[in-house]
């Protein structure tokens, strides 16, 4: 179960990262009680901040469950690696960024490392 929790935490971390990408701190001062809920005015400013909070809490919650079952160093390495791969996949699939064969190779190496940690790493009992 710990590996599933790590994957869920990585999903939350990836979403948290993209909510940071869309935050517009300078526009916060334009939010008012009369426009914060409007699709064209307030929501594009407010939604990344709400996502930042919710995804951050979800990430911390699932990661904290996972590190009770797997060693902290292994959990952190796997969580970081999965997050990196998820962010790159989202950039390519959603934001249409380019990817090189070297990037694919290195991500495959990361995934091989994750599988190695999963199958050969020590787990806490």
Write a structural description.
The radius of gyration is 18 Å and the shape is flat. The chain has one domain (2-120). The protein is 70% helix and 0% strand. With 125 residues, the chain is mainly alpha-helical. The longest helix is centred in the middle third of the chain and has 24 residues, at 43-66. The chain has helices at residues 2-22, 43-66, 72-93, 101-120.
Distance between the termini: 13 Å
| Number of distinct beta strands | 0
Structural class: mainly alpha
Main beta sheet strand tally, sense and closure: none
Low-pLDDT stretches are: none
Helix content: 55-70%
> What Rg, in angstroms, do the CA atoms define?
18 Å
One letter per element, helices H and strands E, the order comes to HHHH
Strand content: under 5%
* Count of helical regions: 4
The shape, in one word, is flat
Q: How many structural units, i.e. domains?
A: 1
Mean pLDDT across residues: 89
